Amino acid sequence: xxxxxxxxxLRPNRDKFSFKMLSFDDNRWEQLLGGYRTQFDPRAAFxxxxxxxxxxxxxxELWEGLHHQGDVGEASYAAVASHRANLSPATTxxxxxxxxxxxY
Length: 104
What we know:
By secondary structure, this protein is mainly alpha-helical. It has helices spanning 5-10, 43-50, 55-66, 74-83, and strands at 67-68, 71-72. The chain starts with a helix and ends in a 21-residue tail after the last helix.
């Protein structure tokens, strides 16, 4: 299987993801790419939301970092999967727009 083109293409990303959700203290967040295909660590914005501090700024930061002209990156998928359940219904706001497969 090591000669399989798909396996070779995925090899650089295997350490970034596993089938488990990333914990908030996992350092792999620092390596994930956002919508601009640059490193984006959403943990600070999620901390603001969970603490109900500067929520509007936090949503702006998440939207700008996780989404760009319909593009999302690894950080986008990880953020939605890992932290959707941790946010109260009152703070989910624009996160609903990050559903996978949604078109704009």
